Amino acid sequence: MIIYHEKLKKEAECMAEAVAQVYGMTVDIEEADLGKFYREVELKDGKGREIRDFGFLEEKGPRKVDGKAIDEFRILLLKDDIYVPGASKCLEDWAFGYSYPDFETAVLSVARLRGKDSVPADKVEVPMKRYLDRVAHLAVHEIGHGHIDRKHMKMAVWCKTDPKGKVIQEMKLGEHCTDPHCAMYEVIDLVPKPHEFMLLGKRKKFDAYLDPLLDAGRYPEWLCKQCDAAAMKGDDRKPQKQYLKISERVKKILSEPEKVIDLTE
């Protein structure tokens, strides 16, 4: 596996250590100009950069060893704030990261991991250990979307409500683990905020926040037993068919028309 980063060597090294521990992969690190990966988009309440342009990946192509192309997973570690491809183009559609199993690629941004809350920051405003813990956790999480068979997982949906509790905005987040101590449990923000929750399957969840998860105790092995058993590990894995199988299933779910959410349990 390789991590391409925008002058974020310390963060990349931290990610590499966590990924090697959890997935048993050899991880290389390379600084790169990732500007071609972004696409400027107009948002309802401002401008942003959408994570949709794969010009960088096409330009780099697969790495080669002894003249042969390597089938490997790639992480793009970005400085700038990023937004969900094809979402409603609102500033609230930002993302910590995003996984593209078909491209064997995960994208992560540190912009919202540097501060006390998820407001984008240009410099680290929290203890370095907390910041790097956030970065490593999200790396393991996003890679998991391409390395773990998600048959046991549930669809996660971010829901924003009005003061009376009525859902006024929602965004599908893909399939995630239901164990709140697992790295594959979804997080919708760093710290709790009013008027929002996560719908996981048909259950309302008010604990989908990264800092409380880190404080409460993520599993020492990072993954729960189900996720660990379903994970592909090591450098000799052959994941391509599995990637396509998983991503096509998720793609079908995400392409379904929006429905009224049934919040009854």
Give structural notes:
The protein contains six helices and 15 strands. With 265 residues, it is an alpha+beta fold. The chain has a domain at 2-150 and 225-254: Collagenase (Catalytic Domain). The strands form five sheets. The chain has a five-stranded mixed beta sheet with strand order 2-1-7-11-10, with helices on one face. Helix 1 (9-23) crosses helix 3 (128-147). The termini are far apart. Mean pLDDT is 81; it is low at 238-247 and 256-265.
- For the record, what CATH class of the domain at 2-150 and 225-254 applies? Alpha Beta
How far the N terminus sits from the C terminus, by CA atoms, comes to 41 Å
Could you name the ranges where pLDDT drops below 50 across 5 or more consecutive residues? 238-247, 256-265
* Corresponding CATH architecture of the domain at 2-150 and 225-254: 3-Layer(aba) Sandwich
Helix percent reads: 25-40%
Number of H/I helices: 6
Q: At the third CATH level, what is the topology name of the domain at 2-150 and 225-254? A: Collagenase (Catalytic Domain)
Alpha-beta classification: alpha+beta
Rounded Rg: 18 Å
* Widest sheet: strand ordering: 2-1-7-11-10
What is the chain-wise order of helices and strands?
EHEEEHEEEEEEEHEEEEHHH
Strand content: 15-25%
- The total beta strand count reads 15
Mean pLDDT: 81
Largest sheet: 5 strands, mixed
The general outline is: globular
